[in-house]
Structures are given as structure tokens and as C-alpha cells.
């Protein structure tokens, strides 16, 4: 059973999300919160698999709540998916840096919304190639400063190659094809890179790849 926490300051939206999820046999909404502070408290109480987190909320916003969840070892199993009305804006990038596993635009169709919850529950990043393309374009126009933390020299050559392919939007199967290795080996390279770089998930790995300069942004 996938346990979901809804964190949004608009009760009507929370009701809509709950209605979509409650009809699924394998998904349970365990709690709702109207701001990030309440959401953090409920995350600690219920230990959900997924926290669907609005970005712009009173008291504590979604970015700070995401950062606190990512920093709490007791909440290591909680995957935060941020909700936005605006697509890939600076708030979303900040949320990904803070530890979000991905993001959804609130006008997503119901079928894709439910599928996305299941994807996030498996631990996969909600960063489709089209979204990764937008991330790349943002770094073309606004090159970031290198982030603090472990440098890329902690990675092996094969791990660096795998990270670069993740940043290009490739799945583990496609990474395996490109590197001529098994999907299991590809997954191992990616997971070891995440551990060494302190990335919570693939979404953060994508951000780190561009911020570190491992992948150079370019226009299509």
C-alpha cells in the first residue's frame, strides 16, 4: 500500500487529489496539511511513502518543508513530490535542490497524476526527458555557481558516465544500452554515484550534474 500525505493550503485542491487517490486499491491518503510546518509534523507522525507538497504556502513554504524532510534521517523513506501551477520555475529548481524527488504541474490529467504517485513511490525521479530539457534550458540562460559538497573526483569514470546519461534524461535500461552493460550494473553505477555525491535521488543527481559542470548545457 502506498501511503500519501497531501500538503497544500487550498482545501479544494486537497479534496480533489484525495478523491483521485482514494479510489485506487493500492494508494491510501494518510493525512492532509495546510502548510509546511503541519506537513512536516504529519510526515513524522505517519511516515508516508509520498508527500505531495505545494510550494507556496503560509507559515513554512514547501521548499523549506522539503529541505527539513530531506535532512531528517527518520524521514529517509519519504519521497517529496512538489506541486506547482507554474511549470519549471525557480521555486521548482530550489525544491529539487532541497531534496524533492520531482514535481507535478497541478493541471496534470488524473491518469498521469495517479501514475506519477506510483512512480515516485518506487523511488524513481519524476523528471521525464521533456522536463529535463527544460532544466537544461534554464541552465543555458542562468548558469549556476558550483554547489558545495563532494566533488566529482569521488566518482569512477563509469559512474561519471552514468551520471551524465541520467542528466540527459536516460532511464537505467537506456544507460545500460549506451554503456554496453547490464541494467543492474547501470543501476549500481547510478546508486553509488548518488551515495558518493550525497544526492537523495535521481532528481538531485540531475541538478548536481549541471551545477557541477559534468554536463554542459546546450540548445537542441
TrEMBL record:
Entry keyword Transcription: yes
Domain of life: Bacteria
Entry-annotated residues carrying 4-aspartylphosphate: 54
InterPro entries: CheY-like_superfamily, NreC/VraR/RcsB-like_REC, Sig_transdc_resp-reg_C-effctor, Sig_transdc_resp-reg_receiver, Tscrpt_reg_LuxR_C, WalR-like
Ranges where the HTH luxR-type domain occurs: 148-213
Keyword list, A-Z: DNA-binding, Phosphoprotein, Transcription, Transcription regulation
Residues covered by the Response regulatory domain: 3-121
Pfam family, one: GerE
PANTHER family given in the database record: TRANSCRIPTIONAL REGULATORY PROTEIN NARL-RELATED, TWO-COMPONENT RESPONSE REGULATOR
Name of this chain's protein: Response regulator transcription factor
Record organism: Streptomyces lavendulocolor
Amino acid at each position: 500500500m502506498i501511503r500519501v500525505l497531501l500538503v497544500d493550503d487550498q482545501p479544494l485542491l486537497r479534496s480533489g487529489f484525495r478523491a483521485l487517490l482514494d479510489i485506487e486499491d493500492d494508494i491510501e491518503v494518510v493525512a492532509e496539511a495546510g502548510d509546511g510546518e503541519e506537513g512536516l509534523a504529519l510526515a513524522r507522525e505517519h511516515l508516508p511513502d509520498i508527500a505531495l507538497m505545494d510550494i507556496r504556502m503560509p507559515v513554512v513554504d514547501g521548499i523549506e518543508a522539503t529541505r527539513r524532510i530531506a535532512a531528517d534521517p527518520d524521514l529517509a523513506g519519504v519521497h517529496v513530490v512538489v506541486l506547482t501551477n507554474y511549470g519549471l520555475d525557480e521555486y521548482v529548481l530550489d525544491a529539487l535542490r532541497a531534496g524533492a524527488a520531482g514535481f507535478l504541474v497541478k493541471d496534470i490529467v488524473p491518469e498521469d497524476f495517479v501514475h506519477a504517485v506510483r512512480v515516485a513511490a518506487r523511488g524513481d525521479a519524476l523528471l521525464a526527458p521533456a522536463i529535463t530539457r527544460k532544466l537544461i534550458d534554464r541552465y543555458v540562460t542562468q548558469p549556476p555557481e558550483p554547489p558545495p559538497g563532494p566533488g566529482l573526483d569521488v566518482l569512477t569514470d563509469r559512474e561519471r558516465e552514468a551520471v551524465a546519461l541520467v542528466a540527459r534524461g536516460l532511464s537505467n535500461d537506456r544507460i545500460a544500452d549506451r554503456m554496453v552493460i547490464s541494467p543492474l550494473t547501470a543501476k549500481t553505477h547510478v546508486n553509488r554515484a548518488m551515495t558518493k555525491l550525497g544526492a537523495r535521488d535521481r532528481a538531485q543527481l540531475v541538478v548536481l550534474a549541471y551545477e557541477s559542470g559534468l554536463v554542459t548545457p546546450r540548445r537542441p
